[in-house]
Amino acid sequence: MSSYTSYKSLCAAVALGLSIASLSFTAQANGEITDQVNHLKAHLDEYNEEVTWLEDKYDGFVTRYEENGAEAVDTQELIDYWEEVNFHSAIETQYIPLYATIWQNIYGIKTGIENGASAKEVRQYQQTLTKTFWQALGAVKLAAHYQDKGVIGKVKTTEKAPTTAPEIVADIEKRLDKVVAKYAEQLKEVATTMVHDTYMERFEGIEGALIEQDASLVEALEKDFNVTLPQAIESGKSVDDVRGIVEAMKQKLSKAQTLLKKAEQNRKDVF
């Protein structure tokens, strides 16, 4: 697949996400989220420079490892590079699935070196990371376009709780994406807490209404929230495994959202 075709596919996926506000949500970044994330278009040149800088930094880092071994590198720099740039917050607040993939590959390089992996193995993570940086820049550029048109609202640092059942389901899906991102950052306890809080603060709020529509679906999601996903996190499953569990949960949540919307419409028709 050509890079242009890949970019078009990414844009289509991102554009689809806009309809459920997946490109804009309350974010809790590692550091402070400055107002630059609400003026993406004005910072696109800066983000482009930062992605080029990141590509050079990670490529140079792996080259040093390749030529001189683990003694020639400090793996903490791998995290420092990423957290240094403003682009970090731009992608975290606009398209968190790619944000999670970035962390996944940064830690792929880091743990690979620390465990004595071959330079070839480490280089594969670095090349995937570079590709993801450019994909993320494409997502931010698309978000900047929609932000400029007023389709995407401003990033807020305080959370406004959803009110209707379909809105709650959409919020649960976004929270689950954040769980994957935090797990990819190797923040296991944070990810586990987020799963628990999402269940208590969101899912329990729609549980009663959903039981009326599909009790077996509620039972399946309860198991996912309280057993399957937390156990995968605690046992140190791969990021891809955790992402797979979340994607399966989101399919069930999509069904739940459809059922709740239908039930809500039926109530309106009655009254």
Automatic annotation (TrEMBL):
Endpoints of the signal sequence: 1-29
Keyword terms of this UniProt record: Coiled coil, Signal
Coiled-coil residue windows: 30-57
Superkingdom, natural source: Bacteria
Keyword Signal: yes
Name recorded for this polypeptide: Poly(3-hydroxyalkanoate) polymerase subunit PhaE
